[in-house]
Structure formats: structure tokens, C-alpha cells
Structure to design on (508 residues):
């Protein structure tokens, strides 16, 4: 079978395993006879390929290989290879993540236990729908986003941009208010009867045309609808129609559909990477969750890296917790943030609990350092209530000096957009996460940890069999009520992935 496959032209390749090896396993399981002579099996496959449209994949990409009856061995193998490729795309992504949004992981990090494409394909010999069901991700976000995508109205609609202008605030009589009300009504954020100033004209009238004889006032009803729109688009729900709100309104329906498609793709990548026990961080939405299987065991808001100090994409495993951590200021923060502040404020160190150390850990006098060109020094803040790392740090192997940690900056969790850190992930529910990680310890061990915490001194607590941690990125979130929240794209990653996804589909 391997030699025959090598002689055939135009066979699609697999990323996850050699195609010849997958074909050998599949045909061995089928007794080395044709797979597609059974009409019922072929019909079932065609139905499953059509169903891939609900996953944001393009059925025609795979269906072309099955347009004709297999008349020779190469045609048979082309059909089988395409079948395996469809299973691979569904289970591992249409695109190779390493070419687009690679994730760092330790060199010796074992891949998660997943059925191979050949194993999935073999399941289809007995039950085609079972093979595709097992290939399809079960990650809750994927399941819910796919459901929402299936239910979306994908009819082509006329879209006219909402005009830019001054921010619209409470009590304003801005001439764009009729267009604003109409737009909110069309998207379901404003029922027609909520317009206290009277009815609008027919909603199919373009936004550039007048839709009312009398202007609206930006009253509480319109503001409430705007707040709902803002929350649904990851914006601060302040009711002010400013630059960011207008920009969100001017994302076309086609662009929103593509946003869903690429995030289904990201979640397929994520499913292929995750273990059964995983702490999953979404840096775009600044949220975190611990899953065992598909069950949520802990969830929290977090603060992620800024656009110019992005939280890296990575896979690792939590191995210890630092209690009462000190904070050694990383070189980037020292160079870009601290040194300018030190140079501009002679009393900088007198006002702060900050130590100056050499690389051996010896205390130095700040007054003896040339802060215009400091050499061989580092800054460290000892444990305490003002320490930026808070009461604990959750550590895992990585080359970026990145970790999850508690923080005294609790007020920032109330922001809709929480990309405010220097790359690390600040955790709102840090104590609850520590309780979860220590839950497997016996009562005496947990009591000892409490005593160590109370000393105020730094201690390391090892975590055995800690969860996998994945720092990931997706920009559409399905909320608990099933509604979609379109998140801003803080690291500007959507456009490139969208172009690559569309190009891959059109190429075939």
C-alpha cells in the first residue's frame, strides 16, 4: 500500500502522521479491499462532509475527491486520503498552527493523548458518524461557538458604516441618533417599542438616509441599548458612543462571520493541544478557567499583557506555588519603566520599599549607583501587601519569565479590556486557585501551608501532578447565556489569520 501511494499523484498530505502509514493502517483494518464500494458508507461520508460547514470548514474542499466512482487504485487512494485529511482538519485544524500562531512548549513535553488520524479513520469503517464525532472537538467553547455559528443568519445584508463624529453622551441630540437607534434595533439590542420619541421608519432604509422626521434625544433607553452593545463587543459598558464603539459598529457582518471561523480554527488547535486537566488562559478576553475533561473547576478574570508586551502563546505545566513572593524586576520593566522614573525623581527609593542588589544578592546603596548607566544591579521588592505579585505566584517552566500571580491591583479587574500587564497573568481569584491546587493534600499539609503563608516570608510549595497550563488567544467568547461576545483583538492577530484561512480554502 505504501509503494502504491507513492506512485499516485495528487494525494493530499497529512500533518500529524505520514500519509502512507495512515493508509496502511486503514486498509489493513479493512482487509486490503476497497473502502468505498459500499454505497451506504460513501453516502454517510458525504453527509458528514456536508456537516463540516457547521464547523466553519468548506465541504467542497473534500467533496471533489468523491465526485466520481473510484475507477483505479489511485482514485481510491485519493478518496481515502481526502477522508483522512477531513478528519485531521476537524480534529487538529485546517491550518498548521506552527505556521501562523505557534505555541512554545518544553522540548520534552509529551503530546496529549489523542486518537491518530488513522485510528479515527478506522472507526469510520464501522460507523462514519462516530469517526467524525470523535474527531470533532469537545472543548466547551468550541461546542458553544459551533452551535452559535449554526444558528446565525448568514443572509447577505446591506451594510452602511455608522458615521464618525464627536462622542455621544447622555442628553445629546446628535443628528446620528436615528441611525444609532436603527442600528441597535437591527441587531436586537433595542426593541422598537423602547423608542420613547416614537417609531422609526422601515429598518431596511440605509443608514445614510433620514429615518425620522424628528431627532431623537440620547435618553436612558438608548443608553441602555448602547451599553448592551458595548458589553457584547468586549467594550466598557459606559453608554458613551465614542471611537471604540463606532469602530465596533463598523465591523461588517462578513467580517464577524470570518472572526467566528478563525476562532473555531483556534479552538480546534487548542483541543489538539490540551490535556484532560488544563488551566486555560485567554489573553484576548483576559479570562482563565480550569477544566477537567469538559467540567469547569475554577474560573477567574485575569489581567493579560499589553499590546507591546503581549502574553506569549505557550503550553507548560504548573509545578509550584511561591507564597509571599518577592519581586525581582525583569530587565525590560527595569529599562523601560523604572529607570526613567528613577532618573526623574531623586526621592524614588525613599518613597518605595525597593531594594538595590548586585547579581550575587548583596544589598547596595542606591545613592552609589550611576542611574544614567547602571551596571550589574537589579531591583527587588520584598514580600508585602504592596508587592505587585501579591500573596502568591503560580509557576511553570518557560523561557519568558512569565507566570500567573496574585495582584494588589484589584480595581483593574472591573475593566472590560484588561490587557494591562507586562506579559504575566494577574489572577483575580488567586486564593481560590491555590486552594484548588492544594486540595489533594491532606489536612496537615494544608495546615502547614497556611502557617507558611502567615509568616510573611517567601516559601516554595511544590505542586505534584499540576494541571497543564495553556496561554492561548481567541477573540469570540460564548457567554453562559449562549450569547456571543466579540472581543477586541489586542494583539492584532485576527487579520493575518483570516487572510490565511480564506486563502487556504480558495486555493483548493
Amino acid at each position: 500500500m505504501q509503494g502504491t501511494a507513492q506512485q499516485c499523484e495528487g494525494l493530499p498530505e497529512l500533518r500529524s502522521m505520514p500519509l502512507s502509514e495512515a493508509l496502511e493502517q486503514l486498509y489493513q483494518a479493512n482487509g486490503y479491499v476497497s473502502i468505498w464500494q459500499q454505497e451506504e458508507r460513501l453516502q454517510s461520508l458525504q453527509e458528514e462532509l456536508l456537516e463540516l460547514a457547521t464547523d466553519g470548514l468548506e465541504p467542497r474542499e473534500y467533496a471533489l475527491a468523491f465526485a466520481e466512482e473510484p475507477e483505479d487504485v489511485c482514485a481510491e487512494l485519493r478518496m481515502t486520503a481526502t477522508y483522512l485529511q477531513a478528519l485531521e482538519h476537524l480534529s487538529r485544524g485546517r491550518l498548521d498552527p506552527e505556521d501562523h500562531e505557534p505555541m512554545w512548549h518544553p522540548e520534552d513535553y509529551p503530546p496529549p493523548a489523542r486518537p491518530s488520524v488513522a485510528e479515527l479513520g478506522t472507526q469510520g469503517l464501522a460507523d462514519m458518524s462516530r469517526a467524525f464525532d470523535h474527531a470533532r472537538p469537545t472543548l466547551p467553547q468550541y461546542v458553544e461557538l459551533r452551535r452559535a455559528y449554526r444558528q446565525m443568519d448568514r443572509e447577505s445584508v446591506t451594510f452602511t458604516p455608522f458615521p464618525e463624529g464627536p462622542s455621544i453622551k447622555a442628553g445629546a441630540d446628535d443628528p446620528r441618533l436615528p441611525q444609532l437607534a436603527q442600528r441597535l434595533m437591527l441587531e436586537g439590542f433595542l426593541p422598537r417599542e423602547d423608542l420613547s420619541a416614537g417609531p422609526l421608519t422601515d429598518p431596511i432604509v440605509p443608514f445614510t438616509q433620514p429615518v425620522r422626521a424628528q431627532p431623537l434625544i440620547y435618553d436612558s433607553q438608548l443608553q441602555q441599548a448602547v451599553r448592551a452593545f458595548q458589553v457584547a463587543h468586549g467594550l466598557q459598558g459606559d453608554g458613551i458612543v465614542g471611537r471604540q464603539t463606532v469602530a465596533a459598529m463598523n465591523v461588517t457582518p462578513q467580517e464577524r462571520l470570518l472572526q467566528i471561523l478563525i476562532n473555531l480554527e483556534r479552538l480546534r488547535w487548542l483541543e489538539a493541544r490540551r490535556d484532560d486537566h488544563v488551566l486555560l488562559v485567554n489573553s484576548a478576553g483576559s479570562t482563565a478557567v480550569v477544566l477537567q475533561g469538559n467540567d469547569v473547576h475554577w474560573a477567574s478574570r485575569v489581567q493579560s499583557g499589553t499590546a507591546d508586551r503581549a502574553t506569549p502563546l505557550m503550553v507548560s505545566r504548573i509545578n509550584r506555588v511561591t507564597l509571599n513572593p518577592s519581586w525581582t524586576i525583569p530587565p525590560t520593566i527595569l529599562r523601560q519603566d523604572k529607570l526613567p522614573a528613577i532618573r526623574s525623581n531623586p526621592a524614588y527609593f525613599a518613597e518605595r520599599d525597593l531594594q538595590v542588589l548586585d547579581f550575587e544578592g548583596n544589598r547596595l546603596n542606591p545613592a552609589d549607583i550611576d542611574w544614567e548607566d547602571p551596571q550589574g544591579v537589579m531591583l527587588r521588592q520584598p514580600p508585602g501587601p504592596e508587592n505587585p505579585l501579591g500573596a502568591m505566584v503560580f509557576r511553570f517552566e518557560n523561557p519568558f519569565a512569565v507566570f500567573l500571580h496574585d495582584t494588589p491591583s484589584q480595581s483593574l479587574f472591573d475593566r472590560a479590556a484588561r490587557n494591562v500587564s507586562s506579559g504575566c497573568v494577574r489572577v483575580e481569584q488567586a486564593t481560590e486557585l491555590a486552594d484548588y491546587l492544594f486540595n489533594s493534600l491532606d489536612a496537615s499539609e494544608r495546615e502547614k501551608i497556611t502557617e507558611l503563608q502567615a509568616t510573611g516570608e517567601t516559601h516554595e510549595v511544590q505542586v505534584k501532578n499540576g494541571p497543564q497550563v495553556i496561554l492561548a488567544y481567541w477573540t469570540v467568547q460564548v457567554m453562559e447565556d449562549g450569547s456571543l461576545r466579540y472581543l477586541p483583538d489586542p494583539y492584532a492577530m485576527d487579520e493575518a489569520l483570516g487572510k490565511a484561512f480564506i486563502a487556504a480554502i480558495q486555493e483548493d
In short: The radius of gyration is 28 Å. DSSP finds 17 helices and 16 strands in the chain. Confidence is low (pLDDT under 50) at residues 195-213.
